[in-house]
Design a protein that fits this description.
Layout (H helix, E strand, L loop, with lengths): L1 E4 L6 H14 L4 E5 L5 H12 L7 H25 L3 E5 L2 H11 L4 H12 L6 E6 L2 H10 L9 H20 L4 E5 L4 H24 L2
Parallel strand pairs: 1-3, 1-4, 2-3, 4-5
The structure holds adenosine-5'-triphosphate and magnesium ion.
Magnesium ion binds next to helix 1.
């Protein structure tokens, strides 16, 4: 189970897809799932959360909707895939809730963690790639890709800075699981590095399992 985290436009989806392709080429069965989303219910929730600008969604409700989508994703897709021996690649996971709803929207972090543990059955990824990128570059990339071209207000800049420090804090507290990658490097350099980390990790896991 591999998760990608990082701010909007940092390159998570790009790297998740690259990794999936390379694992596929090596004959390692895998699937990319996005959070929120990944199931019919989750995609409905995703639509509510990300594309319904007519709705006012308060931070707590927002967090619980993300969690509901995540609970469905784990039960309906991730657990069965893992049981079938597939590698699951998550495009975001609950660390995003810690960073966005916790550090960004100031919901207490311990509450986010305990609800997230409940929603996911405590399922943790073997490895989390945190794609780090400065805010200006991330926003520029999203604009170039034709998304959210409007200028950010001060409050929004403050928010994203808090989100960035939230991700940093997640990585600092769980160094055995997190790998920080420099999202400003060329796409192929990043994907090469990620692929090497993943194959090493798979090798180590196999050795641990075979150890007496
Ligand atoms: N290393 C890179 N160098 C330059 N451009 C990149 C790099 N990685 C991704 N991009 C481009 O930046 C844009 C955003 O990338 P991507 O969609 O992968 O980010 P994301 O983290 O998934 O964003 P979101 O959180 O909005 O889903 C895309 O147009 C992508 O092609
Ligand atoms: Mg994406």
């Amino acid at each position: 189970m591999i998760a990608f985290e990082g701010i909007d436009g940092s390159g998570k989806t790009t790297q998740a897809m690259e990794l999936s392709k390379r694992l596929e080429e090596e004959g390692i069965p895998n699937e990319v799932v996005r959070d929120p989303g990944g199931t019919r219910l989750g995609e409905g929730v995703r639509e509510l959360l990300l594309h319904r600008s007519d709705l006012i969604i308060r931070p707590l409700a927002e967090f619980l909707l993300f969690s509901a989508s995540r609970a469905q994703l784990i039960e309906e897709k991730v657990t069965p895939m893992i049981q079938a021996g597939k590698t699951v690649i998550l495009d975001r996971y609950f660390y995003s809730s810690i960073a966005y709803q916790g550090f960004g929207r100031h919901i207490p972090i311990d509450e986010i963690e305990s609800v997230s543990r409940f929603a996911t059955g405590g399922l943790l990824p073997d490895i989390v790639f945190l794609v780090e990128l400065d805010l200006d570059t991330a926003m520029k990339r999203r604009e170039d890709a034709g998304r959210q071209a409007d200028r950010m207000e001060d409050a929004e800049i403050r928010f994203f800075k808090d989100v960035i420090s939230g991700f940093k804090e997640c990585a600092r507290r769980d160094p055995g699981r997190f790998v920080i990658v420099d999202g400003s490097a060329p796409i192929v350099n990043i994907s090469e590095r990620i692929y090497n980390d993943v194959t090493n990790r798979i090798k180590n896991l196999a050795e641990e399992r075979n150890a007496p």
